Amino acid sequence: MTVPATILESRNLSKRFYLRHNRAAELKVRALALFDGSRRQRVEEFWALKSVSLKIASGEAVGLIGRNGSGKSTFLKLVAGIHRPTSGQLLIARDTRIGSMIELGTGFHPELTGQENVFLNASIHGLSRAETAEVYDAVVEYSGLRHFMDVPLKNYSSGMHMRLGFAIAASLDPELLLLDEIFAVGDEDFQRQCMKTLDSFQERGKTIVFVSHSAAAIQAICHRACLLDHGRLLFDGPVDAALTEYRRLTAASPREAIGPATDGTAESSIAHPDLAWHRLATGGGWEEEGAWVFDFLERRGLRPEHFVLEVGCGSLSSASRLLPYMQPHHYWGYEKNLELYIAGSQIELPRRGIRVELGQFIVNDDYDFSQAPHAFDLAIASSLFRRLPLNSITRCIAAVVAKLAPNGAFYATWPDNPDPTRFEPIVQPNGSTTYSDRDPFHYSFAVLAAIVEAVGGRAERLDDRSHPRGEAIMCITTARS
Amino acid sequence: MLSAEASSEAMTDRTAEVPSIRRTLSGLRHYRHLLRNLVLKDLKLKYRGSVIGFVWSLANPLLMVIIYTIAFTRILKVGSEGFVFYLMLGLLAWTFFATSVGMSTGAIADNGGLVKAVWFPRAILPAATVLFNLVQYLLTVLVFIPLLLAYYRIPLASSMLLFPVFVVLQALFTIGVALVLATGTAFFRDIRHLVEVGLAALFWGTPILYELSRVPDPLRGVILLTPLSPFVTAYHEIFFYRRWPDVTIWALTAGYACLALAFGLWLIVRYEDSFAERV
Asked: Cβ–Cβ of A112/B45 closer than 8 Å?
């Protein structure tokens, strides 16, 4: 049996950088620290990689994807030996020749000729003069710059620069090739040439670790991809699945998902709005649920001048219906998950031309609505309790009831359990299964009503079956009214 | 079945690699062509595009000879004509040291692009700076010393054969200092300015414009101990006084060279893995 040998393995690999904001003052700061005895370090820690474990077999072509600053390049630089790992292990097969194309044409000097630069650059990568002389003709041939070899590099176009740089790198003939974003520049011909070269590398059983933002390049070269985010390995597996995860991630990140349209990159290729992760994260039916909340509240007497609180506003499906209707700043949305809120405010609202400033939003973990200066006439929590254990529900209800106007009402929906003494999974009217002890939860009204009373409210079950998930609905009022 | 242990035998652990002088020295041997190419690059760049090229390097010392001759024999009237020879010996050696040291502060700090993109023993960068200046020094000296010897009709002496020995010692000493300063500047940019000031002071602490023998006694000992004095004095001894340097000079030059080189190597080996984060 032939098992490909591991060529590269990282075990809980971590790399910490220190960000120094004002290095010039450092000597002074240290000197002063000696006097006041505090030895303060004015540096910020930054973990570029955190506990990354992965194994790459000889002959594999692995893509590293992730947003800017996710740690991809740091991983390459650790393997290349440019940085030293902070902790963990980085194992590399003994005597592996590593070729790095972290920056093409490193050390090129504009005043030197093409030929002189080839020899200088090759020696930077550790080639001897004789070794360089051996591959020199091949480099010239490959780069197609035979007539320019005695011309100073300053007269080269940027494309010619790239060609020469890649030609040298390709001639190093490493067993493990580290590539960082080499397709970001260069024309189509050059990119095709790169691809071909990488193909031939693979045919000869070389290992490639490839960092890129280009989904097409990753798909063309790699059969496996690792997704990094904030220094952590989020996903390791087939390229297509990794790219899907990557899209999910970038859709949540406003800066990269929104902005000028980009062609053919992962960010722009969300096929249908409903496949965006922030819509899926709330369980699908994004449009329906938003429409239902608006219709329901209207039926319950919603007026534009009311103050409304939505608990668990998610990616703003109901806000996108309510905001145009309500008076400015009368809609308040509360959400635990910052990324969902960002996706809503940066993707969904702009898509409809709604300004997020029309509403008020609170993002925290503990149902703290204290920043709202007034009581609420209406509050709603649609499909929220299904995600929460009873203690969280208690906290949520208590917080909302405390913020409710004397004749205000808090409407909450939940997957119903008709029998409080039963604990088996239940198939709900919409076909989903709920559980008594895990997410998605079901609860019996008797239990919820008891909680409401315990925190100073009154609960009434509505005979309304209109919720898109078929959840039951109750109306909570303050006991004071 | 492959056990984890068996598989890790075929692997080397990057994290377990401890920076060592041995690793750096074997790295330097492997990358000696880079050292050579870096020196050649600087030399080529310096003279590329100029018509008379290297001759320019002789212009500056030549001008100094003329100026000092006029200053010391016509204006100040403090020395014989032969004193200009004494002066040039020190001045050329000083220029080699001062230029090397001045340039070495940026050898790593100003090469961030290279240091961040490729691994190679970082000691190569300051060493290349010193060797580039050494080549210039040798070319100048090989023109000037015979010229001045002939002009002032100074007879040859066996002591002059020691010149290469002291040049090597001075080069090793300068490389050591360059390693320290290049490493230091990567972490503290202040060192660059400190070096400028330090060099200005050191110039007067080195017997270049004055004869060491004329310095009153307690001060003479101090002057002799300043970093470059033993080397400059050695050149004076072998060319100007045409005698073999005494034991003190030998001990000081060899000792300084060894100390600087050892400390410089130790320092750069200890910190070379963090340069990429600091430049």
From this structure: yes
CB atoms within 10 A of CB A47: 16
pLDDT, tens digit, for every residue of B37-67? 999 999 988 888 777 777 888 888 889 888 8
> What pLDDT was estimated at residue A94?
86
Cβ within 8 Å, pair B113-A107: yes
Which residue of A84, A106, A118 to mutate against B (max B Cβ within 10 Å)? A84
Those residues with Cβ within 8 angstroms of residue B162's Cβ, 6 or more apart along the chain or in another chain: B234, B238, B244, B245
Query: Do the Cβ atoms of A93 and B10 come within 8 Å?
Result: yes
Asked whether the beta carbons of B45 and B33 are under 8 A apart, the reply is no
- Quote the CA–CA distance of A455 and A479 in Å, as a whole number: 9
Cβ(B10)–Cβ(A93) below 8 Å: yes
Q: Residue A102: list chain B partners with CB under 8 A.
A: 117-118
What are the distances in angstroms from CA A240 to CA A70, A245, A269?
19, 9, 13
What is the b/e burial string over A149-181, where b = at least 16 CB atoms within 10 angstroms of the residue's CB? beebbeebeeebbbbbbbbbbbbbebbbbbbbb
Burial class from Cβ neighbours inside 10 Å (0-12, 13-18, 19+) for residue B228 reads buried
pLDDT of residue B5: 40
Question: Minimal Cα–Cα distance from A242 to chain B, Å?
Answer: 27
Peptide bond connecting A440 to the previous residue in cis, omega within 30 degrees of 0: yes
Region for residue A126 given its phi and psi (left: phi exceeds 0; alpha: psi -120 to 50; beta: otherwise) = left
CA closest to B14 among chain A residues: A90
Minimum Cα–Cα distance from A99: chain B residue: B118
Mean pLDDT of B234-253: 95
**Do strands A98-101 and A308-311 pair parallel, antiparallel, or not at all (unpaired)?**
unpaired
**Residues A302-320 pLDDT 10s:** 988 999 999 999 889 999 8
Report the C-alpha gap between B152 and B127 in whole angstroms: 36
Distance of CA A152 to the CA centre of its chain: 44
Q: Name A390's Cβ contacts closer than 8 Å, sequence gap at least 6.
A: A443, A447, A451
- Which pair of structure tokens corresponds to residue B275? 């340069």
Provide the pLDDT for residue A266.
35
pLDDT at residue A336 tops 80: yes
Residue A65: CB atoms within 10 A of its CB come to 29
φ/ψ (deg, to 5) at A473:
-130, 135
Contact: A107, B118; criterion CB under 8 Å: yes
Q: Are B178 and B129 contacting, i.e. CB atoms less than 8 angstroms apart?
A: yes
Our CA angle for A40, A44, A229, nearest 5°, is 160
Residue B194: its pLDDT value, please?
A: 95
Mean pLDDT check: name the lowest of A168-177, A272-281, A321-330, B182-191: A272-281
pLDDT of residue B141: 93
Asked if residue B136 has pLDDT above 80, the reply is yes
A88 contacts in chain B (CB < 8 Å)? 15
Q: Which residue has the higher pLDDT, B108 or A181?
A: B108
Chain B environment of A82 (Cβ under 8 Å): 115-119, 276
Cα–Cα distance measured from residue B206 to residue B204, given in angstroms and rounded to the nearest whole number? 5
Helix or strand run (H / E) with residue A53: strand A43-57
Cut 0.80: pTM above it: no
pLDDT of residue A451: 93
